[in-house]
């Protein structure tokens, strides 16, 4: 696994970190607030997220983090637990009190289960243990942003003679109940919630099977095949569950 330390500047890095303005008036969409007192890690995280097109603001202590959060209302927060002044736990609780919908991904060197439980009880949305893989952290932040931005599905959804009842986990096609496994239904639900968007196999694995528990991408292909067999009028020529070659799939309602 790639360790974040491998991407940091050398210990002899010279230069004064740029001071963050305390009032920002531009829109807050796609802004990541990084709360980290280690300047080297802070710079590495800034590079990581900016390379992916995000705007990054950084705070080196808990008090500054709370002030920045109040002024910019970021899209997500990456929060280190060990901070001068206000602790990471106190910051997490304060930020969630201000805006419960903004996802917080916690960074910590501690891996004790009790620490994770405490943070989740305070409202943290995810927890990454140091040393961490930059790719893993980026994937978790992206997933948190998708969950936040995704519109809430209606209880029922219909397309081409098919009625889906999300509350009952029931699918009816032309008056006949279609039996789906739990994973098939979750796959269908995620596709329906993201119509006409190209979704990679990895994204489906992360969202439907969970980041740590998925098998191979062949699993996704098999589930899409089953959905086509059960819901397409001509499974060999799918209209709704389309393949985007070399990338993944797209749902057309």
Descriptive notes:
The chain has 253 residues and is of the alpha/beta class. Helices cover 38% and strands 19% of the residues. It has helices at 39-50, 62-72, 88-98, 113-122, 134-149, 182-193, 201-209, 218-231; strands at residues 31-35, 55-59, 76-80, 104-108, 126-129, 156-159, 162-165, 170-173, 176-178, 199-200, 241-244, 248-251. A five-stranded parallel β-sheet has the order 2-1-3-4-5, with helices on both faces. The chain has a four-stranded antiparallel β-sheet with strand order 6-7-8-9, with no helix packed on it. A three-stranded antiparallel β-sheet has the order 10-12-11. Helix 6 (182-193) packs across helix 7 (201-209). The longest helix is centred in the middle third of the chain and has 16 residues, at 134-149. Residues 1-29 have low confidence and may be disordered.
Summarize the structure.
This protein has 253 residues and is an alpha/beta fold.
Outline the secondary-structure elements.
Elements (H helix, E strand, L loop, with lengths): L30 E5 L3 H12 L4 E5 L2 H11 L3 E5 L7 H11 L5 E5 L4 H10 L3 E4 L4 H16 L6 E4 L2 E4 L4 E4 L2 E3 L3 H12 L5 E2 H9 L8 H14 L9 E4 L3 E4 L2
Parallel strand pairs: 1-2, 1-3, 3-4, 4-5
Antiparallel strand pairs: 6-7, 7-8, 8-9, 10-12, 11-12
Helix pairs in contact: 2-3, 6-7, 6-8
CATH architecture descriptor of the largest domain:
3-Layer(aba) Sandwich
At the fold tier of CATH, the topology name of the largest domain is: Rossmann fold
**How would you state the average pLDDT, rounded?**
80
Overall geometry comes to elongated
């Amino acid at each position: 696994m790639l360790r974040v330390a491998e991407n940091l500047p050398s210990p002899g890095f010279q230069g004064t970190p740029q001071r963050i303005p305390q009032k920002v008036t531009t829109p807050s969409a796609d802004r990541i607030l990084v709360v980290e007192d280690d300047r080297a890690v802070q710079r590495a995280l800034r590079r990581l997220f900016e390379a992916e097109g995000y705007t990054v603001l950084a705070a080196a202590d808990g008090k500054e983090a709370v002030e920045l959060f109040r002024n910019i209302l970021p899209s997500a927060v990456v929060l280190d637990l060990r901070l001068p002044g206000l602790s990471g736990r106190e910051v997490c609780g304060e930020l969630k009190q201000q805006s419960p919908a903004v996802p917080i991904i916690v960074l910590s060197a501690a891996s004790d289960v009790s620490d994770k439980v405490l943070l989740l009880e305070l409202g943290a949305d995810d927890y990454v243990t140091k040393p961490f893989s930059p790719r893993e952290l980026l994937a978790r932040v992206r997933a948190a942003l998708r969950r936040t931005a995704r519109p809430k599905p209606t209880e029922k959804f219909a397309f081409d003679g098919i009625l889906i009842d999300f509350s009952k986990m029931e699918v009816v096609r032309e008056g006949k109940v279609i039996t789906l496994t739990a994973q098939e239904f979750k796959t269908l639900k995620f596709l329906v919630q993201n119509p006409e968007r190209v979704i990679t196999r990895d994204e489906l694995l992360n969202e439907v099977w969970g980041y740590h528990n998925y098998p191979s991408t062949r699993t996704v292909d098999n589930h899409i095949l089953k959905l086509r067999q059960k819901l397409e009028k001509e499974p060999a020529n799918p209209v709704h569950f389309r393949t985007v070659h070399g990338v993944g799939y797209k749902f057309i309602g």
